[in-house]
Amino acid sequence: MTLTAEQIIAKSASQSKELVAKILKAKTAVVTSHVNPDGDTLGSMLALAKVLEQSGLEVTRVMHDEVPEIYQFFPDQQKVLCSQKKEDLEKIPSEFDLSFSCDCGAIARLGSAGAIWLKAKTTVNIDHHLSNPLYGDLNWVDPNATCTGQVVKELANALEQEGKKIATDKDLASLYYITLLTDTGGFRHSNTTQTVFNWAAELIGQGADPSLIYNGLFNQIPFRAIKIIGNALNKLELDTIKLTSGKEISIAYTYTLRQDLEDVQAKDEDTDEIVDHIMRIKKLDMCLYLREGKEEKSFKGSLRSICQDIECNKVAAHLNGGGHARAAGFNPTAKSFDELKTRVYDLISRYNEL
After folding, report:
1. CA separation, residue 71 to residues 66, 179, 200, 332 (Å)
2. What gap in Å lies between CA 289 and CA 135, rounded to an integer?
3. Model-level pTM?
């Protein structure tokens, strides 16, 4: 059953005091992020780790992937362990009092780090997605929050009310700012509000450098990434999908083969900016981007929309994914790009029946 925003907030509120109490009694914790990390999941994970450490916990930072090259300017990123590397697994304790997932809609989205997350005596789910099914033993999910970093800040405030002194130094302010800048698309998306700018101004006053962070996130793309972006844009096609309501929407589609990546020695993370370039097309309603995965018949998909008739997360939910109304991702299996494209287009056309 899909919960409403009000139901999610109510359940999170009912569990918040118990979560704070457990943090106050805990000694160890692990924090994790979703696979194919973006700035919000990694930034909020690192911010939460700093908050928990200031609360007296010994914290392990771990995720499925290695830290992407473009995020290696984040404070504390060097402390993140990769759950796919044997030498890192040997550094991870066998159990924890608490485990925290950040900005993640399902345990499966934690990848190999999910097994570590499940080892804790109490699992905790920290997120801001409306599609989150509240899979943790305890959940702090706020669909009204702009980013998961904002939810971490809410938790930090609750700990302060219980007597913990959580100092927002330059590093913590920078991590919060990163999550905010990421999930507003550089203050471009519709979730950019007065509250967003007020918090951004506060974080700048606490030491976050807006120019450095913006350039680090958006203006330091490796040459190989530019090549793979160009490859995808060269294959771009424009289509029209007719909805069951009779309305027609315009959609752009492109894809990346595993061989395309290998030809220019590109990494999966180098494809992250492709959808942003596509959505600059005039009078476009949606875009679909597909990338061939490392395993046979595996794919990574991204949906973006400015069309009020289609919420991306509802489509992605039928493809092993989730996200936001205007931006979502999914990790399906399929026989081919064409089969998967047809499946996505069919879901969009039947959106009112989903």
Report:
1. 10, 12, 20, 26
2. 28
3. 0.88
Task: Give the fold, CATH level 3, of 5-218.
Answer: inorganic pyrophosphatase (n-terminal core) (3.90.1640)
- The predicted-structure confidence for 52-81, as pLDDT tens digits, reads as follows 999 999 999 999 999 999 999 999 999 999
Out of 3.10.310.30, 3.20.20.70, 3.40.50.150, 3.40.1280.10, the CATH code matching 223-353 is 3.10.310.30
Domain ranges of the chain: 5-218, 223-353
> Does residue 190 contact residue 157 with C-beta atoms inside 8 Å?
no
3 state SS of 88: helix
Q: What is the pLDDT of residues 214-268, one digit of tens each?
A: 999 999 999 999 999 999 999 999 999 999 989 999 999 999 999 999 999 999 9
Secondary structure (3-state) at 325: coil
Token representation of residue 169: 């130094």
Can you list the alpha helix ranges (DSSP code H) found in 118-209?
Answer: 148-161, 170-183, 194-205
Token pair, residue 158, equals 């609750």
Q: Which of 150, 225, 233 is nearest to 184 (CA)?
A: 150
**How is residue 170 written in tokens?**
């330059």
Helix, strand, coil shares of the chain, percent, nearest 5, are 45, 20, 35
What contacts 27, CB < 8 A, 6 or more positions away?
56, 57, 58, 97
Question: What does the pLDDT look like over 176-215, one tens digit per residue?
Answer: 999 999 999 999 888 999 999 999 999 999 999 999 999 9
